[in-house]
Write a structure and sequence with these properties.
By secondary structure, this protein is an alpha/beta fold. The protein contains 4 helices and 7 strands. β3 (60-63), α2 (72-82) and β4 form a beta-alpha-beta unit. It starts with 16 loop residues before the first helix and ends in a 9-residue tail after the last strand.
């Protein structure tokens, strides 16, 4: 949550539809859904328990909590191990967790400024930082390429490039 939003009021933020429109894909599972956003993410299943302890299946979407300093690391570790999906993360390129995830991703799309939606559907000021989409697997790679081709961001590949099967 950005500093100029009301801290502590909510951590309930939704990914705007423009992200999914640019990706042009359908997910098997949203592994970290917003509590009150049923149907918000184009996914067959919205995991309702603890996404870190429950099993993930198929091509997954993850807009993981942006909170705490290293709070993303366990989510990204599980995401990279799963090897099939797209994760939306802050583009904290100097953070150790970002470097670690970048080296394991199959592709990264540094996006244009994304503003998350509040539960009432209005655009918020969060996040205050830039964002990136990290892909694992062939479907994720193709989806990021489609979004990059549409001008949604700048795609980069870790070196050496190895796409997960």
């Amino acid at each position: 949550m950005s500093a100029w939003e009301a801290p502590g009021v909510t951590d309930e933020w939704y990914t705007p539809p423009a992200v999914f429109n640019a990706l042009g894909c359908w997910f098997d599972m949203d592994v970290c859904p917003a509590r009150h956003a049923a149907g918000h993410v184009p996914a067959s299943v919205n995991l309702r328990g603890d996404g870190l302890s429950e099993p993930w299946e198929g091509f997954v979407w993850g807009n993981f909590p942006f909170g705490g300093r290293n709070g993303l690391e366990p989510w990204l570790d599980k995401f990279m191990e799963h090897g099939n999906g797209i994760a939306l993360v802050p583009d904290r390129t100097s953070a150790p967790w970002f470097w670690k995830a970048f080296q394991r991703a199959d592709a990264i799309l540094f996006t244009r400024k994304i503003r998350f939606l509040r539960p009432d559907g209005t655009e918020g000021k969060s996040p205050s930082c830039g964002t990136a989409l990290m892909a694992r697997g062939e479907i994720g790679f193709a989806s990021l390429q489609r979004a990059a081709d549409a001008g949604f961001g700048i795609m980069t590949l870790p070196w050496p490039r190895k796409v997960a099967a």
